[in-house]
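Subject: design request, 174 residues
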């Protein structure tokens, strides 16, 4: 295992004598003295990247496996959290930069505010949203029907509620 310059390793609370995190944002297994566990060789672990783009690992403790995010393990090991804040924020917005100096404990609202202020999270709106019940063409058709049919009848045609139709026609949605 190669240590990076000035890299410091520390046990991860809850995983003492099993896993250590480093100030450079890496995770390694602690060598197994008994020889029972072949996965505990003292190697730096290889992470995988989740759907949201965060590096994660599968770790083992008392025979149970758990998926953990790299930045959380580093923060738990190195950054005090006296206010018991639930989220770990990447200060520079780079999801794979898990160096200690780039991480901080925040609330959910602080995390969202940071993402919005730094344009890190772009929320799709209207027909571009993953949850959209209607596409752009349907929205145009619905707006052109306004006043010709009841909201309920239009809703039945497009399989959405009358309230949704009302909001589309009034341009409160989409």
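Subject: RE: design request

Done. Sequence follows.
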């Amino acid at each position: 295992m190669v240590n990076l310059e000035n890299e410091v390793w520390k046990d991860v609370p809850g995983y003492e004598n099993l896993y250590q995190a480093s100030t450079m944002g890496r995770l390694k297994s602690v060598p197994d003295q008994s020889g029972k566990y072949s996965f505990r060789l003292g190697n730096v672990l290889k992470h995988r990247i989740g759907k949201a783009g965060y590096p994660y690992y599968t770790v083992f403790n008392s025979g149970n496996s758990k998926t953990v995010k790299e930045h959380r393990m580093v923060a738990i090991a190195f950054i005090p959290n006296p206010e018991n804040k639930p989220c770990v924020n990447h200060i520079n917005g780079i999801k794979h930069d898990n160096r200690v100096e780039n991480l901080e404990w925040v609330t959910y609202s602080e995390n969202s505010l940071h993402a919005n202020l730094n344009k890190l999270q772009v929320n799709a709106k209207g027909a571009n949203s993953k949850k959209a019940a209607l596409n752009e063409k349907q929205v145009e058709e619905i707006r052109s029907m306004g006043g010709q049919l009841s909201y309920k009848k239009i809703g039945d045609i497009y399989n959405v509620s009358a309230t949704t139709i009302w909001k589309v026609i009034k341009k409160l949605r989409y």
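The mean pLDDT is 88.
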